[in-house]
Amino acid sequence: MLVTAGNVNDTTMMAAVLDLIAVARTGPGRPRTRPDRVLADKGYPSRANRRYLAARGIPATIPEKADHAAGRLRRGSRGGRPPGFDPAAYRQRNTVERCFNRLKQWRGIAMRSDKTARAYRAGIALAATLVWIKTDLINTA
């Protein structure tokens, strides 16, 4: 989790957020630092993000913006190939959107009313933990 100022664009922070990933393994060994795939909406298809993901060997499922496609086609053979896109994998992105919707049901998180970033981050961590516990209890019942 990374908390930034409210006026910072999400797409500029994608690499920083992915660098913070550390998923513990069930057995011995270092935590995983590379996700199996990145699913993102049309707000993230910048060249910088695609290069970063390709350099780390992370497959990306990000739809291409219409203006990007038009620019690529306008350049003809110099425009390159369209980026790969897996529509079946992209359908799973709604899981992320549902998570954001659940978190924003907490008024303090939706309004970002905390005075400090530290308090706001703590509120998100608490809300996410409670959502996770509630979801886990529903799924195991």
From TrEMBL:
A single GO molecular function term of this UniProt record: DNA binding
Annotated region described as Disordered, given as residue ranges: 64-90
Pfam families reported for this sequence: DDE_Tnp_1 (PF01609)
Gene Ontology BP terms: DNA transposition
Domain Transposase IS4-like: 2-131
InterPro entries: Transposase_11
Protein name: DDE family transposase
Lineage of origin: Bacteria, Bacillati, Actinomycetota, Actinomycetes, Micrococcales
